[in-house]
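Shift notes (night). Ran Glycosyltransferase family 4 protein while the centrifuge was going.
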Amino acid sequence: MINIGFKNRYKVLHFTNEIGSYIVGGMATFINQLYTHHTDEIGFVHFYNSDEDLSLARYPGQKNILAVSYDELDRLKELSFDIAVSHFYFFDFLINEEILQDKPLVYIVHSVPTTEPYDLRDPFGGNHLIKEQFEKSCRRADVIVNISKSEQKKLTTIYPSLEPKTHMIYNGMDFQHPTNQYQRKEQSQKHFGFLGRLDHRKGLLETVKAFRGLNAHLHIACGNEDPFYLNQILSFIEAADMGDKVHFHGWCQGERKESFLQFIDALIVPSLYEPFGYVVIEAMSHQTPLLCSNSGAFTEITGNHPYMFDPYQPETIKDCIQYFQNDSTENIQLHTMALVERLPLFTSTRMIDQYNQLFNNIENSLLEKGVLLT
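Came back to this:
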Protein backbone atom coordinates (compact mmCIF):
# COMPACT_ATOMS: atom_id res chain seq x y z
CA MET A 1 0.00 0.00 0.00
CA ILE A 2 1.20 3.47 -0.89
CA ASN A 3 -0.14 6.29 1.24
CA ILE A 4 -0.49 9.55 -0.69
CA GLY A 5 -1.66 11.93 2.00
CA PHE A 6 -4.29 9.39 3.06
CA LYS A 7 -5.98 9.94 6.44
CA ASN A 8 -7.15 7.50 9.09
CA ARG A 9 -10.85 8.02 8.45
CA TYR A 10 -13.22 9.40 5.81
CA LYS A 11 -16.89 10.21 5.57
CA VAL A 12 -16.96 8.86 1.98
CA LEU A 13 -14.42 6.47 0.49
CA HIS A 14 -14.33 5.81 -3.27
CA PHE A 15 -12.90 2.54 -4.60
CA THR A 16 -11.63 2.72 -8.19
CA ASN A 17 -9.04 1.37 -10.61
CA GLU A 18 -9.05 4.56 -12.70
CA ILE A 19 -7.69 7.88 -11.48
CA GLY A 20 -5.34 10.53 -12.81
CA SER A 21 -3.70 9.15 -15.93
CA TYR A 22 -4.39 5.56 -14.90
CA ILE A 23 -7.11 5.43 -17.51
CA VAL A 24 -9.16 2.56 -18.90
CA GLY A 25 -12.31 4.40 -19.96
CA GLY A 26 -14.72 7.19 -19.12
CA MET A 27 -14.68 6.32 -15.43
CA ALA A 28 -11.30 8.08 -15.08
CA THR A 29 -12.79 11.34 -16.37
CA PHE A 30 -15.55 10.97 -13.78
CA ILE A 31 -13.18 10.11 -10.90
CA ASN A 32 -10.86 12.97 -11.79
CA GLN A 33 -13.79 15.39 -11.66
CA LEU A 34 -14.70 14.03 -8.22
CA TYR A 35 -11.10 14.41 -7.09
CA THR A 36 -10.75 17.96 -8.44
CA HIS A 37 -13.73 19.09 -6.39
CA HIS A 38 -13.38 16.83 -3.35
CA THR A 39 -13.09 17.91 0.27
CA ASP A 40 -10.84 16.36 2.90
CA GLU A 41 -13.68 14.20 4.21
CA ILE A 42 -13.62 12.23 0.94
CA GLY A 43 -10.90 9.68 0.12
CA PHE A 44 -9.93 7.53 -2.85
CA VAL A 45 -8.59 3.98 -2.93
CA HIS A 46 -6.85 3.13 -6.21
CA PHE A 47 -6.47 -0.57 -7.04
CA TYR A 48 -3.51 -1.52 -9.21
CA ASN A 49 -1.65 -4.62 -10.35
CA SER A 50 1.40 -5.47 -8.23
CA ASP A 51 3.64 -5.70 -11.32
CA GLU A 52 2.69 -2.16 -12.35
CA ASP A 53 5.21 0.64 -11.76
CA LEU A 54 3.40 3.45 -9.96
CA SER A 55 4.31 7.09 -10.47
CA LEU A 56 3.07 9.85 -8.18
CA ALA A 57 3.09 12.19 -11.17
CA ARG A 58 0.26 10.18 -12.72
CA TYR A 59 -2.12 10.93 -9.86
CA PRO A 60 -4.36 14.02 -9.93
CA GLY A 61 -3.04 15.24 -6.58
CA GLN A 62 -0.94 14.38 -3.56
CA LYS A 63 -3.54 13.88 -0.84
CA ASN A 64 -6.41 11.58 0.19
CA ILE A 65 -5.29 8.72 -2.08
CA LEU A 66 -4.34 5.20 -1.06
CA ALA A 67 -2.85 2.91 -3.71
CA VAL A 68 -3.59 -0.74 -2.99
CA SER A 69 -2.34 -3.62 -5.09
CA TYR A 70 -4.60 -6.58 -5.74
CA ASP A 71 -2.16 -8.63 -3.64
CA GLU A 72 -2.95 -6.53 -0.56
CA LEU A 73 -6.75 -6.73 -0.45
CA ASP A 74 -6.70 -8.26 3.03
CA ARG A 75 -5.54 -4.87 4.35
CA LEU A 76 -8.78 -3.22 3.28
CA LYS A 77 -10.11 -4.33 6.67
CA GLU A 78 -7.96 -1.58 8.21
CA LEU A 79 -9.90 1.23 6.50
CA SER A 80 -12.31 3.47 8.40
CA PHE A 81 -15.20 5.26 6.69
CA ASP A 82 -18.91 6.01 6.97
CA ILE A 83 -19.96 5.38 3.35
CA ALA A 84 -18.24 3.18 0.78
CA VAL A 85 -18.58 3.90 -2.95
CA SER A 86 -17.73 1.18 -5.46
CA HIS A 87 -17.24 2.02 -9.14
CA PHE A 88 -16.79 -1.38 -10.81
CA TYR A 89 -18.49 -4.78 -10.66
CA PHE A 90 -15.03 -6.41 -10.59
CA PHE A 91 -14.70 -5.06 -7.03
CA ASP A 92 -17.06 -7.71 -5.72
CA PHE A 93 -14.32 -8.59 -3.23
CA LEU A 94 -15.49 -5.49 -1.33
CA ILE A 95 -18.71 -7.34 -0.51
CA ASN A 96 -17.22 -8.53 2.74
CA GLU A 97 -18.46 -7.21 6.07
CA GLU A 98 -14.97 -7.37 7.51
CA ILE A 99 -14.27 -4.57 5.00
CA LEU A 100 -17.64 -2.80 4.82
CA GLN A 101 -18.36 -3.22 8.55
CA ASP A 102 -22.11 -3.03 7.84
CA LYS A 103 -21.65 0.52 6.52
CA PRO A 104 -23.76 1.84 3.61
CA LEU A 105 -22.52 0.93 0.13
CA VAL A 106 -23.20 3.13 -2.89
CA TYR A 107 -22.59 1.32 -6.18
CA ILE A 108 -22.14 3.71 -9.12
CA VAL A 109 -22.93 1.69 -12.24
CA HIS A 110 -20.96 3.42 -14.98
CA SER A 111 -22.26 0.84 -17.42
CA VAL A 112 -24.46 -2.22 -17.00
CA PRO A 113 -21.97 -4.83 -18.35
CA THR A 114 -24.19 -6.50 -20.93
CA THR A 115 -23.44 -7.37 -24.51
CA GLU A 116 -24.55 -4.84 -27.15
CA PRO A 117 -27.16 -5.39 -28.28
CA TYR A 118 -28.29 -7.59 -25.42
CA ASP A 119 -30.86 -10.35 -25.21
CA LEU A 120 -33.09 -10.02 -22.15
CA ARG A 121 -32.99 -13.83 -21.78
CA ASP A 122 -29.18 -13.72 -21.46
CA PRO A 123 -28.08 -10.07 -21.18
CA PHE A 124 -24.51 -10.96 -20.22
CA GLY A 125 -23.96 -13.16 -23.26
CA GLY A 126 -23.18 -16.28 -21.28
CA ASN A 127 -20.48 -14.57 -19.18
CA HIS A 128 -21.57 -16.00 -15.84
CA LEU A 129 -18.67 -14.56 -13.86
CA ILE A 130 -19.52 -10.97 -14.83
CA LYS A 131 -23.18 -11.68 -14.08
CA GLU A 132 -22.36 -13.03 -10.61
CA GLN A 133 -19.99 -10.17 -9.78
CA PHE A 134 -22.46 -7.54 -10.94
CA GLU A 135 -25.40 -9.07 -9.09
CA LYS A 136 -23.37 -9.45 -5.92
CA SER A 137 -22.57 -5.72 -5.86
CA CYS A 138 -26.15 -4.77 -6.71
CA ARG A 139 -27.59 -6.92 -3.93
CA ARG A 140 -25.35 -5.47 -1.24
CA ALA A 141 -25.64 -1.87 -2.39
CA ASP A 142 -27.89 0.38 -0.35
CA VAL A 143 -28.07 2.82 -3.27
CA ILE A 144 -27.36 2.15 -6.94
CA VAL A 145 -26.52 5.23 -8.98
CA ASN A 146 -27.04 5.21 -12.74
CA ILE A 147 -25.35 7.90 -14.82
CA SER A 148 -28.24 8.38 -17.26
CA LYS A 149 -31.94 7.62 -17.54
CA SER A 150 -31.24 5.11 -20.31
CA GLU A 151 -28.88 3.20 -18.01
CA GLN A 152 -31.42 3.29 -15.22
CA LYS A 153 -34.07 1.92 -17.55
CA LYS A 154 -31.70 -0.76 -18.81
CA LEU A 155 -30.86 -1.89 -15.27
CA THR A 156 -34.47 -1.96 -14.06
CA THR A 157 -35.63 -3.74 -17.22
CA ILE A 158 -33.19 -6.56 -16.49
CA TYR A 159 -33.68 -6.41 -12.70
CA PRO A 160 -37.08 -4.84 -11.87
CA SER A 161 -36.61 -5.58 -8.16
CA LEU A 162 -33.70 -3.13 -7.99
CA GLU A 163 -35.79 -0.13 -9.02
CA PRO A 164 -36.54 1.12 -5.45
CA LYS A 165 -32.86 1.67 -4.66
CA THR A 166 -31.78 3.19 -7.98
CA HIS A 167 -30.88 6.84 -8.26
CA MET A 168 -29.95 8.79 -11.40
CA ILE A 169 -27.21 11.45 -11.46
CA TYR A 170 -25.86 12.68 -14.76
CA ASN A 171 -22.09 12.77 -15.16
CA GLY A 172 -20.57 16.22 -15.37
CA MET A 173 -17.29 17.87 -16.24
CA ASP A 174 -15.41 21.16 -16.10
CA PHE A 175 -15.42 23.21 -19.25
CA GLN A 176 -15.30 26.80 -20.37
CA HIS A 177 -18.85 27.76 -21.27
CA PRO A 178 -18.74 29.15 -24.83
CA THR A 179 -19.33 32.89 -25.02
CA ASN A 180 -19.01 33.48 -28.75
CA GLN A 181 -21.55 32.56 -31.38
CA TYR A 182 -20.53 29.61 -33.49
CA GLN A 183 -18.86 30.66 -36.72
CA ARG A 184 -18.85 28.07 -39.45
CA LYS A 185 -15.31 27.37 -40.67
CA GLU A 186 -14.33 28.50 -44.12
CA GLN A 187 -14.32 24.91 -45.29
CA SER A 188 -16.63 22.81 -47.41
CA GLN A 189 -17.83 20.55 -44.57
CA LYS A 190 -15.62 17.73 -45.76
CA HIS A 191 -13.53 17.05 -42.67
CA PHE A 192 -15.18 14.85 -40.04
CA GLY A 193 -13.59 13.50 -36.89
CA PHE A 194 -13.82 10.40 -34.71
CA LEU A 195 -12.46 10.62 -31.16
CA GLY A 196 -12.46 7.64 -28.83
CA ARG A 197 -11.15 4.20 -27.93
CA LEU A 198 -10.52 1.58 -30.58
CA ASP A 199 -13.40 -0.69 -29.61
CA HIS A 200 -15.95 -2.32 -31.91
CA ARG A 201 -18.74 -0.94 -29.71
CA LYS A 202 -17.69 2.58 -30.74
CA GLY A 203 -18.87 1.91 -34.32
CA LEU A 204 -15.73 3.05 -36.12
CA LEU A 205 -15.70 0.35 -38.80
CA GLU A 206 -19.30 1.12 -39.74
CA THR A 207 -18.37 4.79 -39.99
CA VAL A 208 -15.39 4.10 -42.24
CA LYS A 209 -17.65 2.08 -44.52
CA ALA A 210 -20.12 4.98 -44.66
CA PHE A 211 -17.42 7.26 -46.09
CA ARG A 212 -16.98 5.13 -49.19
CA GLY A 213 -18.45 7.17 -52.02
CA LEU A 214 -18.72 10.36 -49.97
CA ASN A 215 -16.95 13.58 -50.88
CA ALA A 216 -15.49 13.81 -47.37
CA HIS A 217 -12.52 12.91 -45.19
CA LEU A 218 -12.57 11.00 -41.91
CA HIS A 219 -9.95 11.93 -39.31
CA ILE A 220 -9.52 9.29 -36.60
CA ALA A 221 -8.05 10.11 -33.17
CA CYS A 222 -7.71 6.85 -31.24
CA GLY A 223 -5.20 4.48 -29.72
CA ASN A 224 -4.51 0.85 -30.58
CA GLU A 225 -6.50 -0.85 -27.84
CA ASP A 226 -7.69 -3.64 -30.15
CA PRO A 227 -5.10 -4.58 -32.83
CA PHE A 228 -7.44 -7.15 -34.39
CA TYR A 229 -10.18 -4.57 -34.85
CA LEU A 230 -7.65 -2.10 -36.26
CA ASN A 231 -6.57 -4.69 -38.82
CA GLN A 232 -10.19 -5.11 -39.88
CA ILE A 233 -10.48 -1.36 -40.41
CA LEU A 234 -7.17 -1.10 -42.27
CA SER A 235 -8.07 -4.06 -44.49
CA PHE A 236 -11.35 -2.42 -45.46
CA ILE A 237 -9.63 0.90 -46.17
CA GLU A 238 -7.10 -0.85 -48.42
CA ALA A 239 -9.70 -2.97 -50.22
CA ALA A 240 -11.94 0.05 -50.81
CA ASP A 241 -8.98 2.22 -51.94
CA MET A 242 -9.83 4.84 -49.30
CA GLY A 243 -6.31 5.62 -48.11
CA ASP A 244 -6.59 9.20 -49.35
CA LYS A 245 -9.72 9.99 -47.33
CA VAL A 246 -9.19 8.21 -43.99
CA HIS A 247 -6.50 9.71 -41.77
CA PHE A 248 -5.19 8.42 -38.43
CA HIS A 249 -3.98 10.98 -35.89
CA GLY A 250 -3.19 8.72 -32.91
CA TRP A 251 -4.52 9.22 -29.40
CA CYS A 252 -5.35 12.87 -28.69
CA GLN A 253 -5.35 14.39 -25.22
CA GLY A 254 -4.91 17.88 -23.84
CA GLU A 255 -3.87 20.48 -26.41
CA ARG A 256 -3.88 17.89 -29.21
CA LYS A 257 -7.53 17.16 -28.50
CA GLU A 258 -8.32 20.88 -28.46
CA SER A 259 -6.65 21.33 -31.85
CA PHE A 260 -8.41 18.28 -33.26
CA LEU A 261 -11.86 19.54 -32.26
CA GLN A 262 -11.09 22.94 -33.74
CA PHE A 263 -9.78 21.50 -37.00
CA ILE A 264 -12.66 19.22 -37.95
CA ASP A 265 -15.94 20.46 -39.43
CA ALA A 266 -17.96 18.06 -37.28
CA LEU A 267 -17.42 15.23 -34.80
CA ILE A 268 -19.03 11.87 -35.51
CA VAL A 269 -19.87 9.71 -32.47
CA PRO A 270 -21.25 6.42 -33.87
CA SER A 271 -21.29 4.28 -30.70
CA LEU A 272 -23.56 1.26 -30.74
CA TYR A 273 -24.43 2.17 -27.15
CA GLU A 274 -23.13 4.69 -24.60
CA PRO A 275 -24.21 4.84 -20.96
CA PHE A 276 -23.23 8.52 -21.00
CA GLY A 277 -20.61 9.86 -23.44
CA TYR A 278 -18.19 12.56 -22.29
CA VAL A 279 -16.96 13.08 -25.84
CA VAL A 280 -20.35 14.54 -26.79
CA ILE A 281 -20.07 17.08 -23.96
CA GLU A 282 -16.57 17.99 -25.13
CA ALA A 283 -17.79 18.64 -28.67
CA MET A 284 -20.67 20.75 -27.37
CA SER A 285 -18.38 22.82 -25.15
CA HIS A 286 -16.08 23.52 -28.13
CA GLN A 287 -19.03 24.41 -30.35
CA THR A 288 -17.93 21.64 -32.69
CA PRO A 289 -20.93 20.51 -34.78
CA LEU A 290 -22.01 17.03 -33.77
CA LEU A 291 -23.30 13.98 -35.62
CA CYS A 292 -24.05 11.09 -33.31
CA SER A 293 -25.94 7.85 -32.92
CA ASN A 294 -29.33 7.78 -31.24
CA SER A 295 -28.24 5.13 -28.74
CA GLY A 296 -27.95 5.16 -24.98
CA ALA A 297 -27.74 8.54 -23.28
CA PHE A 298 -27.01 10.57 -26.42
CA THR A 299 -30.63 11.55 -26.94
CA GLU A 300 -30.80 12.70 -23.30
CA ILE A 301 -27.68 14.82 -23.68
CA THR A 302 -28.45 16.37 -27.07
CA GLY A 303 -32.22 16.71 -26.84
CA ASN A 304 -34.06 17.06 -30.15
CA HIS A 305 -30.87 17.09 -32.24
CA PRO A 306 -31.37 16.64 -36.01
CA TYR A 307 -27.99 15.11 -36.87
CA MET A 308 -28.54 11.65 -35.40
CA PHE A 309 -28.59 8.15 -36.88
CA ASP A 310 -29.21 4.51 -36.02
CA PRO A 311 -25.78 2.87 -35.48
CA TYR A 312 -27.26 -0.52 -36.32
CA GLN A 313 -28.33 0.78 -39.75
CA PRO A 314 -25.00 1.80 -41.36
CA GLU A 315 -26.69 3.46 -44.32
CA THR A 316 -28.19 6.04 -41.96
CA ILE A 317 -24.67 7.21 -41.05
CA LYS A 318 -24.04 8.16 -44.67
CA ASP A 319 -27.48 9.77 -44.92
CA CYS A 320 -26.76 11.86 -41.81
CA ILE A 321 -23.39 13.03 -43.14
CA GLN A 322 -24.91 14.05 -46.47
CA TYR A 323 -27.79 15.82 -44.71
CA PHE A 324 -25.28 17.79 -42.66
CA GLN A 325 -23.17 18.64 -45.71
CA ASN A 326 -26.20 19.97 -47.53
CA ASP A 327 -27.66 21.88 -44.59
CA SER A 328 -27.45 25.66 -44.44
CA THR A 329 -24.97 27.63 -42.37
CA GLU A 330 -27.88 29.11 -40.43
CA ASN A 331 -29.30 25.71 -39.52
CA ILE A 332 -25.93 24.32 -38.45
CA GLN A 333 -25.36 27.38 -36.30
CA LEU A 334 -28.84 27.09 -34.79
CA HIS A 335 -28.45 23.41 -33.92
CA THR A 336 -24.92 23.86 -32.55
CA MET A 337 -25.97 26.68 -30.24
CA ALA A 338 -28.98 24.64 -29.11
CA LEU A 339 -26.50 22.03 -27.84
CA VAL A 340 -24.47 24.71 -26.06
CA GLU A 341 -27.60 25.78 -24.19
CA ARG A 342 -27.90 22.25 -22.74
CA LEU A 343 -24.41 22.28 -21.20
CA PRO A 344 -25.53 23.53 -17.74
CA LEU A 345 -27.20 20.12 -17.24
CA PHE A 346 -23.79 18.45 -17.35
CA THR A 347 -21.45 20.60 -15.28
CA SER A 348 -19.18 19.14 -12.64
CA THR A 349 -20.70 21.54 -10.08
CA ARG A 350 -24.18 20.15 -10.67
CA MET A 351 -22.92 16.57 -10.45
CA ILE A 352 -20.88 17.15 -7.28
CA ASP A 353 -23.79 18.92 -5.56
CA GLN A 354 -26.09 15.98 -6.28
CA TYR A 355 -23.59 13.43 -4.96
CA ASN A 356 -22.99 15.49 -1.84
CA GLN A 357 -26.74 15.66 -1.29
CA LEU A 358 -27.01 11.89 -1.72
CA PHE A 359 -24.23 11.24 0.80
CA ASN A 360 -25.75 13.71 3.26
CA ASN A 361 -29.13 12.02 2.92
CA ILE A 362 -27.56 8.64 3.66
CA GLU A 363 -25.75 10.06 6.68
CA ASN A 364 -28.90 11.75 8.00
CA SER A 365 -30.87 8.53 7.55
CA LEU A 366 -28.31 6.67 9.65
CA LEU A 367 -28.48 9.31 12.38
CA GLU A 368 -32.28 9.10 12.43
CA LYS A 369 -31.98 5.37 12.96
CA GLY A 370 -29.64 5.99 15.87
CA VAL A 371 -26.57 4.61 14.09
CA LEU A 372 -23.40 6.06 15.63
CA LEU A 373 -21.02 7.29 12.94
CA THR A 374 -17.43 6.69 14.01
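DSSP finds twelve helices and 14 strands in the chain. Residues 348-368 form the longest helix (21 residues).
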